[in-house]
Design goal:
The chain has four helices and two strands. It is mostly helical and about 100 residues long. It is elongated and about 50 Å long.
Length: about 100
């Protein structure tokens, strides 16, 4: 903003607890019951809430600060079951067991 920016968008964190490498590294049965790691989901949720509050506090009449939510759309895709193929291709070490 000190450099003259007037419209700035900040992207929140994704549901980190649902990333394949996080699931693999944080579950005992990495190949069974591929569920999101709840504590990691809470970290991302808390960060995103605090980011939105901070952006609102920093906004002025001359500057517009926008929050871009990627958490909910990605979590919706995961619960809908549409991301498995993409994750399997991106993270080769992870075998993507359902």
């Amino acid at each position: 903003m000190n450099e003259g920016g007037r419209k700035i968008a900040m992207v929140g964190l994704p549901p980190m607890g649902c990333l394949p490498e996080v699931i693999t590294l944080n579950t005992d049965a990495a190949t069974h019951g591929r569920k999101c790691v709840e504590p990691m989901l809470s970290v991302a949720e808390d960060y995103n809430i605090n980011l939105q509050i901070k952006l609102k506090d920093m906004q002025t009449s001359e500057t517009k600060l926008y929050y871009a939510d990627i958490y909910k759309p990605i979590l919706d895709m995961i619960h809908f079951g549409t991301t498995k193929l993409v994750m399997c291709i991106k993270f080769e070490f992870d075998q993507c067991h359902a």
